[in-house]
Amino acid sequence: MACAVGGLITIDFVEPAQPAVEKIDFDFASHNHSLIIVQTGKGHADLSADYSSVPSEMKKVAQYFGREVLAQVTEEEVIDRIQDIRTFAGDRSVLRALHFFEENKRVEAEVTALKENRFEDFLKNITASGNSSWKWLQNCFTNSGFQEQGITVTLALTELFIEEKGTGGLQSSRGRICRRHYGGAAQ
Q: Which residues pair with 23 in a beta bridge?
C-alpha cells in the first residue's frame, strides 16, 4: 500500500470494506536519519500456521465478549475480565490482545509525532512497537521450533551493534531503534 500511495501511510481498517488511508508527509533525511536493513537469513515460508494464529487468537478474546474482532472491545474490558479470558482463550491470546490495543495507541502517537515534527517521540514509539511485537505479540519465532530463532538472534546482534557504534543507521540522540518487519505472511 505504501508503494501504491507513494510513501509513508497510515491505514485504519475499522471499516474493512472502506479502509481509511492517509499519506503522512515527513522528511526523514532532514533529521539525518538512515535506515539499515539487515538480512536475518530466515525465511518465513514455514510460519503460515503461526501467522494465522495471531488474528485467530485475538478473535478468540473478542469472542469471549460475543464480538467478532478486538476493535469491538475495549482494553479496559479485557483487563477487567483478564482471569476469565485467560481461562477461555489462553495467556498468549491475552498478550496478543494487549499488544493490539497498545499498538493502536502507538500508531496514533507516531502519526501525531511526525505531523508535529517530534522525531524523537516517533522513534521512541517505533522501539516500543518492536519490543511489544517480540514480547507480547510473540511473532519473531515459532514455538514449535523454539531452538531456531534466527530473527531474534539477528535482532539481538543488531541491537548490540548499534549500541557499540553509538551513531548511524538506527541510532537517535536518545536511543537505538531496532524493529523487525516481515515482507508478508507466507500463505
A: 9
The three grid cell numbers given for residue 173, joined into one nine-digit string: 540522540
Task: Return d(Cα 144, Cα 11) in angstroms, integer.
Answer: 32
Per DSSP, the residues of 141-166 read S-GGGTT--HHHHHHHHHHHHHHHH-
Quick one: cell of 96?
496478543
**Digit-coded pLDDT (tens) for 81-139:** 999 999 999 999 999 999 999 999 999 999 999 999 999 999 889 888 988 988 999 88
Identify whether the C-beta of residue 55 lies closer than 8 Å to the C-beta of residue 48: no
pLDDT (tens digit, 9 = 90+) per residue, 4-14?
Answer: 887 788 888 88
The values of phi and psi at residue 59, to 5°, are -65, -30
- pTM for the model stands at 0.81
**All domains in the chain, ordered by first residue:** 33-176 (3.30.70)
Residue 91, C-alpha cell as written in the block: 495467556
